[in-house]
Automatic annotation (TrEMBL):
One of its GO terms (cellular component) is cytoplasm. This is 2-isopropylmalate synthase. Its main location: cytoplasm. Pathway: Amino-acid biosynthesis; L-leucine biosynthesis; L-leucine from 3-methyl-2-oxobutanoate: step 1/4. Signal peptide: none annotated. Belongs to the alpha-IPM synthase/homocitrate synthase family. LeuA type 2 subfamily. It holds the Pfam family IPMS_D2. Catalyzes the condensation of the acetyl group of acetyl-CoA with 3-methyl-2-oxobutanoate (2-ketoisovalerate) to form 3-carboxy-3-hydroxy-4-methylpentanoate (2-isopropylmalate). PANTHER family: 2-ISOPROPYLMALATE SYNTHASE (PTHR46911:SF1), PTHR46911. The gene is leuA. NCBIfam families: leuA_yeast, PRK03739.1.
Length: 558
């Protein structure tokens, strides 16, 4: 078999929904929905090895920490693992008062009865029952017509109602899913849901949750939004109904569908952390929530330590999270390419300089620090990188802020190293080549001896010390530009090294090394060659002398 030249022979386009006065395209998401985590159910049923009690327990605690208030804890009728976990959880008293657990069952008497038994003793709980309603399932799975399918839902609702009356100590809530909603006729789903309402008699105080799943995502997300908006218009007693979204990601647009569904009037979103779930996964509620956050809307979920959350999720699911997964992947805040690095570095400088917290950052839609990520990984260096890349790494790692012209000078060295090694350059690679280029860790040709610094009455630093070469020593002293001129003059007069200083800068160091000041000097030799010198020292005046000596060493060593 190969891909068809005429796929239309095999596949049909999804029909559009006739909703010319649709409202959702001009709406925005302005508040957090109710969130339902289905990690322990839809996520769990999609795992190669479903979670046992220990992993389920850890996941449950994680969800509490994140702040999820409604948690689908399992499918009690699936077997002892889920039943025991759920009944154990209920009896343990580990369910906080503001958290409601939910279970799922097919709309079948025996399974519903088992499900209620698992929740016996709960203060409050949501019983979620479902049956598929769309044409292919009606025809292929059930071999039933529309009336018979509706009857499955109604019969299930009756069992749910009667079981709730039997276990009257619990404040029961109900959720019904017309499974495969997004591939069914909306009017028919409404008809089935209305029939369920007739049995369960929801009220505005005790509404029923209608979960409208894109069980298999088969259309663009605008169509799902149309279906949700239409359902909301047609369902009777809308104020007694909570509309819940449950999207899957078969076309890769499960998150977009949930977002458009919220714009279309839904109240609640079901999904899994980082999008685990059947086939291509459920809606990733982390991404939906953080998308809201980056629009200035509080999602009411806490992902401040996203890496710890990811670690627990990976452990429980035994599935890795992709390095490019939105918000959490290892590489999602990292730029390797030169122009991105340049823009990000400028962005951080501009953020430091401005006096308000509004995030204006090229290429980074969210501040990684909000999710507990450091800025270190924001820029990494390889052969695709530019000046901004290594300058950032030297600044983060060593506290050095290279002058722009010097970055251009050092750039060739970094580029050659990256090309030679054919791999990422780490901070230690860049620091090593920097030290080598500016003679920082090699035995110095010109040495500084017997030196000290003091503070002048105007607060500037005064330097006094000696330059030494091959046993010959010459004293230099002074401060600021005068000191640099004195060193350059001494090098010329006493040692025959002629350098003209073109540029000089210095700064206090805030990261990395123990030293506290760095100085950079751009010199030109009589032959017109540009040489940069770097000095690092506890004191700024000493750093500046060292910078000139570093240039002199480079000039004399060739
Ligand atoms: C889209 C979703 O994610 S839905 C959730 C799916 N999750 C799970 O299935 C996980 C847990 N499930 C299980 O462990 C098992 O399916 C069990 C134990 C619950 C039931 O197992 P079985 O009794 O073997 O039934 P099975 O699930 O295979 O369903 C087959 C029968 O139920 C019928 N059925 C399927 N879904 C439903 C439903 N929602 N309501 C009523 N009947 C249903 C089928 O038509 C079929 O009937 P048939 O035997 O007359 O042809
Ligand atoms: C049972 C429903 C909610 C479901 O999991 C789905 O349709 O994907």
């Amino acid at each position: 078999m190969t891909m068809l030249k005429t796929p239309g022979d095999k596949y049909r386009p999804f029909p559009l929904i006739n909703l010319p006065d649709r409202q959702w395209p001009s709406r925005a998401i302005t508040q957090a929905p109710r969130w339902l985590s289905t990690d322990l159910r839809d996520g769990n049923q999609a795992l190669i090895d479903p979670m046992g009690a220990e992993k389920k327990s850890r996941f449950f605690d994680l969800l509490l920490k994140v702040g999820v208030k409604e948690i689908e804890v399992g499918f009690p009728a699936s077997g002892a693992t889920d039943f025991d976990f759920i009944s154990g959880l209920v009896r343990s008293g580990r369910i906080p008062d503001d958290v409601t657990v939910q279970i799922l069952t097919q709309s079948r008497r025996d399974l519903i009865e088992t499900s209620f038994a698992s929740l016996e003793g709960a203060k409050t709980a949501i019983v979620h029952f479902y049956n598929a309603v769309s044409p292919v399932w009606r025809k292929v799975v059930f071999g039933m017509d529309m009336a018979e399918i509706k009857q499955i839902a109604v019969d299930g609702a009756k069992v749910v109602r009667d079981q709730a009356a039997r276990y009257s100590g619990t404040d029961w809530r109900f959720e019904y899913s017309p499974e495969t909603f997004s591939t069914a006729e909306v009017e028919y789903s409404v008809e089935v849901c209305a029939a369920v309402m007739d049995v369960l008699q929801p009220t505005p105080d005790k509404p029923i949750i209608f979960n409208l799943p894109a069980t298999v995502e088969c259309a663009t997300p605008n169509i799902y939004a149309d279906q949700i908006e239409l359902f909301g218009r047609l369902i009777p007693n809308r104020d007694s109904v909570v509309i819940s979204l449950h999207t899957h990601n078969d076309r890769g647009t499960g998150i977009a569908a949930a977002e458009l569904g919220l714009m279309a009037g839904a109240d609640r979103v079901e999904g899994c952390l980082f999008g685990n779930g059947e086939r291509t996964g459920n809606c990733d509620i982390v991404t939906v929530a953080l998308n809201m956050y980056t629009q200035g809307v509080d999602p009411e979920l806490d992902f401040s330590d996203i890496d710890a959350i990811a670690k627990t999720v990976e452990y429980c699911n035994q599935l890795p999270i992709h390095p490019r997964h939105p918000y959490v992947g290892e590489l999602v805040y990292t730029s390797f390419s030169g122009s991105h690095q340049d823009a990000i570095k400028k962005g951080f400088t501009a953020m430091e300089a401005k006096n308000d917290p509004v995030w204006e950052m090229p290429y980074l839609p969210i501040d990684p620090a909000d999710l507990g990520r450091s800025y270190e990984a924001v820029i990494r260096v390889n052969s695709q990188s530019g000046k901004g890349g290594f300058a950032w790494v030297l600044e983060q790692d060593q506290g050095l802020k290279l002058p722009k012209k010097m970055q251009a000078h050092f750039s060739n060295r970094v580029q050659s190293l990256a090309d030679d090694l054919g791999r990422e350059l780490f901070a230690e690679d860049i620091w090593a080549v920097f030290q080598k280029t500016y003679k920082l860790n090699t035995p110095q040709h010109f040495q500084l001896v017997d030196y000290e610094e003091s503070k002048a009455t105007d607060g500037t630093r005064l330097f006094a010390g000696k330059i030494e070469l091959d046993g010959r020593e010459r004293s230099v002293s002074g401060r600021g530009n005068g000191l640099i001129s004195s060193v350059v003059g001494t090098l010329n007069d006493a040692f025959g090294v002629s350098l003209e200083v073109k540029d000089y800068s210095e700064h206090a160091m805030t990261a990395g090394s123990d030293a506290r000041a760095a100085a950079y000097v751009e010199c030109v030799t009589p032959q017109g060659k540009t040489i940069w010198g770097v000095g690092i020292d506890e004191d700024v005046a000493t750093a500046s002398v060292r910078a000139v000596l570093s240039a002199a060493n480079a000039a004399t060593e060739g």
